[in-house]
């Protein structure tokens, strides 16, 4: 008889979103870099992503799976304070489901020796007043209520990373994680949906890059500036409905964006060839993808098959093909696989959904309950007991630090 395992369960646990793996579009006007190199170790390919963080994590998954050394997140706390007027059991279940969806992708992004650090209380090492003084330098009119002090993030990155390692924060807030990672010579990715991405994070990072940020850990790490970041936003949904309700390719997509999006959906790396017009991406050294909105004829398919050659394969994504059936095409051109756009992807994802946020204030009101008799009173003092949770780390895999160091670091926080 197998042993029964304890399992955390909640309403709707079995429901999982079919996330669309969006492509990321750079906005060069918002990207920023130093005017000159300060040192040989300057890092310029950091990423700041504006958009829903669950969709952003999904967008990062293909390129960065197994590559992130440290994840620090400060998600909305599930303390109950935001649920005063709501059905407590249902809304806590929504929070658990949304956090589960994010943590599963984060786990796949982590390196085998990576670690995940989560604040689950508003008490941390360092004084929030220190953090507020750090943030006020970048925006004095709208200060975060609980920003994270730079020395807290420095302590975590000292324990969990080396120079050049990749750090991720998908709840970027005021941008402390990226600012500290930048000063410490770590590569970083941050995700933020709120407008403070533009009012707080970008001004803060610009001062860090320009060497004008003397606060936080700058003095202790002898920070002089340098490096940069690229600003990205999530592309709109690939599939939209036309005025008759039929699913079609979003007209906002140009040819290159369509090719990149379909390559990602099919598991190919988007890498257009400069020499072979039909190579828009690859999944191996011999397997390629070609995307076109044209209606391809039997003669064109035959010519394309000849160019690809017998030692390679090509996935052809096209609007339609004519003059030959799919079965005949497979027989005549065994190195080609044909798929029609957009039919090939319609069942893959929940299209057109842009918001998977943890904003509980937008949740529906609970149905009023029938009046119930008051419960029996608790013994004296019982009603005042609370479970207090501390910021903690979750080690994923065998990090280079000893396990005892891990436990010490968790207790420190």
Task: Lay out the secondary structure.
Elements: E1 24-26, E2 32-33, E3 46-50, H1 53-64, E4 68-73, H2 88-109, E5 110-118, H3 128-136, H4 150-160, E6 166-169, H5 176-183, E7 187-192, H6 196-209, E8 228-234, E9 239-241, E10 247-249, H7 255-265, E11 269-270, E12 281-282, E13 287-291, E14 295-297, H8 298-308, E15 313-318, E16 320-322, H9 326-332, E17 336-340, E18 392-395, H10 403-412
Parallel strand pairs: 3-7, 3-8, 4-5, 4-6, 6-7, 13-15, 14-16, 15-17
Antiparallel strand pairs: 1-8, 2-8, 5-18, 9-10, 11-12, 12-13
Q: Which residue ranges are poorly predicted, with pLDDT under 50 across at least 5 consecutive positions?
A: 83-88, 378-390, 398-413
Question: What is the overall number of helices?
Answer: 10
The separation of the N and C termini measures 41 Å
The CATH architecture assignment of the largest domain turns out to be 3-Layer(aba) Sandwich
Q: Order of SSEs, N→C?
A: EEEHEHEHHEHEHEEEHEEEEHEEHEEH
- Which class of the largest domain in CATH terms? Alpha Beta
> What is the helix fraction of residues, given as a range?
25-40%
Quick check: average pLDDT? Answer: 84
Strand content: 15-25%
- Shape descriptor reads globular
Largest sheet: 9 strands, mixed
């Amino acid at each position: 008889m197998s042993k029964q395992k304890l399992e955390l369960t909640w309403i709707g646990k079995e429901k999982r979103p079919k996330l669309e793996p969006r492509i990321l579009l750079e906005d060069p006007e918002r990207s920023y870099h130093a005017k000159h190199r300060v040192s040989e170790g300057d890092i310029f390919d950091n990423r700041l992503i504006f958009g829903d963080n669950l969709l952003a994590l999904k967008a990062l998954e293909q390129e960065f799976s197994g590559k992130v050394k440290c994840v620090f997140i400060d998600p909305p706390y599930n303390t109950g304070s935001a649920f005063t007027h709501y059905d407590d059991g249902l809304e806590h279940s929504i929070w658990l489901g949304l956090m589960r969806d994010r943590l599963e992708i984060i786990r796949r992004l982590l390196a085998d020796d990576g670690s995940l650090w989560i604040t689950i209380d508003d008490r941390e090492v360092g004084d929030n007043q220190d953090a507020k003084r750090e943030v006020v330098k970048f925006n004095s009119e709208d200060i975060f209520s609980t920003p994270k002090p730079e020395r807290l993030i420095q302590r975590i990155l000292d324990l969990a990373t080396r120079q050049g390692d990749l750090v991720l924060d998908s709840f970027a807030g005021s941008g402390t994680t990226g600012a500290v990672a930048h000063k410490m010579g770590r590569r970083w990715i941050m995700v933020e949906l709120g407008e403070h991405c533009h009012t707080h994070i970008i001004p803060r990072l610009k001062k860090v890059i320009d060497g004008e940020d003397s606060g936080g850990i700058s003095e202790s790490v002898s920070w002089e500036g340098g490096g940069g970041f690229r600003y990205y936003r999530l592309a709109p949904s690939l599939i939209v409905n036309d005025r008759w309700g039929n699913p079609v390719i979003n007209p906002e997509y140009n040819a290159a964006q369509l090719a990149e999006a379909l390559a990602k959906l099919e598991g190919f790396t988007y890498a257009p060839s400069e020499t072979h017009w039909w190579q828009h991406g690859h999944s191996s050294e011999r397997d390629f993808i070609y995307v076109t909105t044209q209606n391809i004829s039997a003669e064109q398919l035959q010519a394309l098959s000849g160019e690809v050659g017998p030692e390679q394969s090509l996935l052809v994504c096209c609007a339609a093909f004519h003059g030959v059936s799919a079965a005949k095409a497979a027989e005549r051109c065994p190195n080609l696989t044909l798929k029609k756009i957009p039919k090939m992807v319609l069942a893959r994802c929940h299209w057109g959904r842009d918001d998977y946020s943890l904003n509980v204030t937008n949740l529906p009101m609970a149905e009023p309950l029938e009046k119930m008799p008051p419960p029996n009173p608790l013994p004296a003092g019982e009603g005042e007991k609370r479970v207090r949770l501390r910021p903690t780390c979750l080690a994923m895999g065998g990090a280079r630090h000893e396990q005892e160091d891990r436990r010490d670091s968790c207790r420190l926080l």
